Every structure is written in C-alpha cells, then in structure tokens.
Amino acid sequence: MPDVFSTLARLRPAFDIFLTLFSALAASVSIAWVRQEPLLTYLEIPKHQAAMLFVTCLLPLTLSQYGSYRSQRDIPPMMELVRLWSAVGFVAVL
C-alpha cells in the first residue's frame, strides 16, 4: 500500500496542473454560457493571461522540486518558509 501513496505523491504536481487548466476552461465555458456568447470569444487568451496560466502550471512543478510536497515534520517551520518563498521567488524571476 505505501507504493500507491508514493505514486500518488509523485503525481500531485501533474494533478495540480490538470486542475488549473480544467478550472480555466470551465470558467470560460461558464462565462460564455451565462452571457450567451460564442465560446471562442473566451478561449482567445491575451499574452498576460497566457503568462499567468504558464506560471500557475510551473509553480506546482517548482514546489515539487523544492520539496514542498514531502512530509515537513522533521524540518523547522522557518526552513519550510525559506523553501516555499525560494520556490515562489524562482517562478517570479522566470
């Protein structure tokens, strides 16, 4: 059973990316349906929104590499904050 949990833990960043993209698509479909406008109107993504979508997809991968999805019981809270903010800072610099 531990193998299942470790596999699921490795898939967490991919699931976060899928959930981000699915949520963006669901929001576009919902807005188009409520306003009764063509869906293609809301699927055209301006550059700044594409950049934000890229960042929200990149952040879970970066957090995974910095160890944020692992158990943090043996790490002091200040070290955990340093890891978190260094990952967020890395994505912000990109």
Strand and helix layout:
Elements: H1 2-35, H2 40-43, H3 47-65, H4 77-93
Summary keywords:
single chain; 4 helices; 0% strand
Which sequence of SSEs, written as H and E, runs from N to C?
HHHH
Strand content: under 5%
Uncertain regions spanning at least 5 consecutive residues: none
Class computed from helices, strands and strand pairing: mainly alpha
Please count the beta strands (DSSP E, at least 2 residues each): 0
Distance between the termini: 38 Å
Any idea what the shape is?
elongated
Q: How would you sum up the major sheet?
A: none
- Give the averaged pLDDT, no decimals: 80
The rounded Rg comes to: 17 Å
Q: Helical percent range? A: over 70%
Number of helices: 4
Give a structural overview.
This protein is mostly helical. It has 4 helices and no strands. Helix 1 runs antiparallel to helix 3 (47-65) and helix 3 runs antiparallel to helix 4. It is elongated.
Give a summary of the structure in a few sentences.
The protein is an all-alpha fold and 94 residues long. Helices cover 79% and strands 0% of the residues.
